[in-house]
Amino acid sequence: MASSTLLWKRALPTTSRIVRMYSTFKPASPLTVHDINQHTIEAKYAVRGSIPIRADELQSLIDSHPTLHGLPFSKIINANIGNPQQLQQKPLTWYRQVLSILQYPELLDEVKFPADVVDRATTLLKHLGSVGAYSPSQGVPYIRNSVAQFISDRDGYDASPENIFLTGGASAAVTYLLQILSAGPNSGFLIPIPQYPLYTATIALNNAKPIGYFLNEDNHWSTDPNQIRQLIKTNKEQGVDIKALVVINPGNPTGSILSEQDIIELIDIAAEHGIVLISDEVYQENIFKGKFLSMKKVLCELKESHPHLYSNVQLASLHSTSKGVSGECGQRGGYMELIGFTQEVKSVVFKLASINLCSVVSGQALMELMINPPKPGQESYEQYHHETSAIHTDLETRASALYESFLEMEDISCNKPMGAMYLFPRLHFTEEHYPLLFKRARDQKQLPDDTYCIELLEHTGICCVPGNGFGQVEGTYHLRTTFLPPGTEWIEKWTAFHKAFIQKYKV
Ligand SMILES: Cc1ncc(COP(=O)(O)O)c(C=O)c1O
């Protein structure tokens, strides 16, 4: 008796109060991946794919065994994602001072802040109440007004707050747009190749069809309007209803900036075919060479000169607090301006925003702080100016240093960075010169750019993303790296790794 009691005690979790004397059913199995929405399985997102996951595992190993991990490096360099504050970029003081008051208004009595910080925080508190309360779904009206003013000042053309939706980063705007435009597998979306994989992933989630148009690597990743027109023709012939043309300017992963002529050609295509333009302009502040021209500005100019051709063009333009010199990726601020859409369609976007209740309210406030920063003469201006200029110069210096290093590396070519946060160098690997690499890749069910990035990670701790995660011309191989990690030591390690890689594989 004593021993059976003991067994019973062991069989039950000690904290459980519930005792089932006998079971009346056979327990069902948990879900397998075949039971869930297959579109969620199909969606891929290389920026946080298998190589970054492996990098996280290695970082955990280092953290748990700081002296005994046995790896040839002591930290992971996350060059796989444009996440500046993960890589020691300091947040701007102006943002954090105002945000801290919004989070805890009592600070106003306890800390002496610059006068413009107090003014802005007080104004924002008046308009949004508490950051802990839901805001109107489209966004706080005061902040939408500010965004409209920012766009008008930037472009020289009016913007209406009615057309502004504050979103949880630009990603949420992409989700809304692709949701309303996807009407089944025959809904086509023209996307640049290479592209930022948010687009292919969201298209897959909506069971729609991605139609890649190739950017021209030999001409600074420019667009080829003839190719896009041809794609529209052939897809229409096959019954595909092309809904939108996605443009990423400045480009991710390419780091290029579109010329005015390219933008005009894209608007022409949209006007002629009634295709919505989605202009992802989250890197508009990250410009090193050339000039950023918003799609909205070019469209307004065209409308002014040729209203009969362009008045029906529908453009959604996106911006974010994650990039630029803000780098506030975790705060999830963004906006989308909808131009030329009917009230009926805008109401559906509004409904989607309502289903989500609202975007993060502190992220909305951050958007206001980004587009409406301290002005010369205000107390925070000097520090703001100093901090933002330093970040900008730093990014430009790092971009050049990495670019120069790629130029020195054997069998690598790279376009000069013009903007954004990335380089997308080409790895000139051919089966003829790298037979062992191609064999190894095939054996491991990889592509040669996967193998390169995996070995780079395992030997140096540098984590970047193979070009095939963004799309590339078949038979070409690339990788995407940010130039955000500080210092040059990691670049030196990369150079040494590359030499060894070439020695190992090249014949
Ligand atoms: C081109 C592009 N669009 C959109 C996003 C999404 O950014 P967020 O949702 O943080 O605004 C990113 C992020 O890297 C991006 O590179």
From TrEMBL:
Record bears the keyword Transferase: yes
Alphabetical list of InterPro entries matching this protein: ALAT1/2-like, Aminotransferase_I/II_large, PyrdxlP-dep_Trfase, PyrdxlP-dep_Trfase_major, PyrdxlP-dep_Trfase_small
Subunit relationships: Homodimer.
Name assigned to this protein: Glutamate pyruvate transaminase
Domain Aminotransferase class I/classII large: 124-485
Superkingdom, taxonomy of origin: Eukaryota
SUPFAM superfamilies: PLP-dependent transferases (SSF53383)
Pfam families: Aminotran_1_2 (PF00155)
Protein family according to the UniProt entry: Belongs to the class-I pyridoxal-phosphate-dependent aminotransferase family. Alanine aminotransferase subfamily.
Species this protein is from: Suhomyces tanzawaensis NRRL Y-17324
Cofactor(s) the record lists: pyridoxal 5'-phosphate
Alphabetical keyword list: Aminotransferase, Pyridoxal phosphate, Transferase
Presence of the UniProt keyword Glycosyltransferase in the record: no
GO biological process: L-alanine catabolic process
Molecular-function GO term, any one: pyridoxal phosphate binding
